[in-house]
Here is the input.
Amino acid sequence: MLDAIAPFFQSFYDDTGWNFVIFYEQYEYDRFIEGIWTSLQLIVASLIFSLVVGIVGAWAQGAKFAIVRYVIAGYIQIFRNTPPFVQILFFYFVLGNLTPSYDAGGYQVAWIGNFGWAVISLGFFAGAFNVEIFRSGIEAVPESTREAASALGYTRLQAYIYVIFPLAFRVCLPALNNNLVNLLKTTTLAYGIAVPEMMYTANQIWSDNVNVPEMMIVLFIFYVALVAVLVYGMHKWEHKMKIPGYG
Amino acid sequence: MDRVKNRLGGLTRTDLPVLLPVAAQSRQAALIERREGTYRLNMQPRHALWAAALFIGACGAAQAAAPAGLISPMDALFKWMSFILWGPEGQLTGFSLNLIISFFAMAFGTVAGTALGLMQVSLLLPVRQGSWLVTQFFRNSPWLVLLFTIMLLFPFEIDLGFTVIPVPDWMKAVVGFSLPVMANISEIVRGAVQSLPSGQWESAESLAFNRRQTMWMIILPQCVKRMIPSWINWYCILAMATPLCSIMGVEESVTYTAQALNAEGDRPELIPVFYSFLLIIHFIYTYPIARWSIQLEKRFVVKM
Here is the structure.
């Protein structure tokens, strides 16, 4: 890959002074790929974690105990109404201090590193929205549908898997899309706790090579392309999953 | 075909009794979110209690865990409180700088966004397409990337020939924050203009208003009312995003909190107290504004 594009970008640099160092130097190229990879991992991990938080939270909101419901409501409001960046710092510096660490040959290494905390805090941030999204989806399915399913001999779990969830999911999907796009953009905040994702890597590269404008262009293309792909894919999916007669 | 569909919209939505009204509401909310580019803050009075409980809990735990002999966490917080809120004497930094940045960014973002939004409904195709592209670009880039771009690529002083204007970091942060706000306000303006029934345009034309007159005297006054709740909501989102510029070393509340903690020797029991204090002051500031936006929205919905 690099061999094919290196001569072009090398001569491009020589001719124009635009230094896209990541496309002709092996070391920077590796760093760049590593950054993309970490970014994608971070996005996917926090996305999955936020979905889990959303599902568990929506389930817990229907709990019998009022206290559980209050805790979930409080969690949602706190995470919705405070800056996500402060949340990340809070998780990493406050909770990160309280979690155990192990001895790795002379120095202490925390069980949960900065990547882990980024996933957790971003997951909880997006999860706070997902809880409400999933709840509204489940609420949208009428009780009579549940009863009809059980009249047809579905067990509770089967009714949930084959009848309620597919309907609820279709209701959730548009709101879920919005939230996931928002989460994708929010993952850059992990820069604040030095997770080596795209933003952080780009910063390292431009610090070493003094090519800020070039790396900025690469960053913009990376994120706008990522958002575009996600939005396009999700819209296609939304369209496919559309319930006939609903908008 | 589309028109027929729209006219039947009300009917077709109810002809499948599979889902409860919540489904339509959720869909509506998602569409609004998509148009506005952000979620709606929804704060209730009880949330203030939750926030207070979190803060008091953190303080209590810290107070209990504090070793004897050192300054107690609460005393440390009181000592640094005015520093975090206002910065050193004679300066408006710390949390007040967060507010200043948010005011200016909102002001610039609104002016530029309105212009861009009106360009999006222009009759000239290149203007329409160009402004659409700009809007989408700034709407879909992460805030941090925009902020970094402006912080690093903007000159630290502007030489006008006869005088040199210094551009401090916080001013660059204002520019960096006003870009995404601009793009989103642009989309809100476009949405509001297009949401008005076309009869407004047609009757204005029959009364011999030209396009500019129609826009300024008939369309925009009606749009303002529709946009205000979204606009306030965006202000809240922006105010909550201002701590981001601490990454670039702007002397705002997060930077000062970290410095205050440093000065106290980074004692672990102080960290929860200081950071939850930070959360609380942001909450206290955003809460009344978000409430106000909810009230306005309710009032306007009834009138329309």
User: Anything to note?
Assistant: Chain A is about 75% helix and 0% strand. The longest helix of chain A spans residues 26-61. Residues 57 and 153 of chain A are 28 Å apart (CA to CA). The first strand of chain A starts at residue 101 and ends at 103.
